[in-house]
Amino acid sequence: MTDPLTGAAPARLALTDPSDLVATAHAMADAARAAILPHFRTATLVADDKGVGRFDPVTLADRAAEAAMRAVLANRRPDDAILGEEEDYRPGTSGLTWVIDPIDGTRGFISGTASWGVLVALCDAAGPIYGLIDQPYIGERFEGGFGRSHVTGPMGRAPLIARATADLGAATLFTTFPEIGTAAERAGFEAVRDRVKLTRYGMDCYAYALVAAGQVDLVIEAGLASYDIAAPIAVIEAAGGVVTDWQGRPVHRGGRALAAANPLIHAAALAILKTIPDA
User: Which of 90, 130, 155, 254 could be a cystine partner for 145, CB 3.0 to 4.6 Å?
Assistant: First the structure.
């Protein structure tokens, strides 16, 4: 994404040894797992509504997990900035920002499904450079960036390689809400939906993980925040996929997202979504 003042693309921060950054990301995900799992599928779990209009829940688990993740950063990397869902932005001086969502998919979390996840992204001025999608209950962790692209879980470790599907008519499409965004955004989504082989709903961040894992071809969503999409961008791109907004531009700051398994299927879906005017 170009700088609005100079018109130049932001330079990537030079990182000679990412090992501490990777270890920090895993420590944050571990801390979030420990904070969240005692609350999952419990009769005492209470969800507050922080939204206006559509129900937008937040739980003690969301807040505890973000606090735990921030504590890891305060100890290991106090000079990095933090952008999270549940607490205020914390500026930094290192040129790096951690973009975190303690529970992406709280509606699924309070419903007892295992489609929610912990999102951890490391960004420089140009966008995400590393990300984790962690599903604590299943015990799966999807990782992408710094030359890494793999999942670890109950079946061990496996590489993340996105699918090569090029034809929309053979594609599998996901979105979290069938009533996606505005009326125009819904029409755009439905135009793609009507061209694909299979459409499924309600998977939250896990759908993006499945793109990286070679199980799903497309995810189309609207109204996202940076903490919803930054980590999936890093993981999917490391697996060979493409993630942009509906005009083909960077989307790490949020908005309308098109995640695709490869450039060909991305181009096919983008040609349809580009007809939807910017909000």
Answer: 130
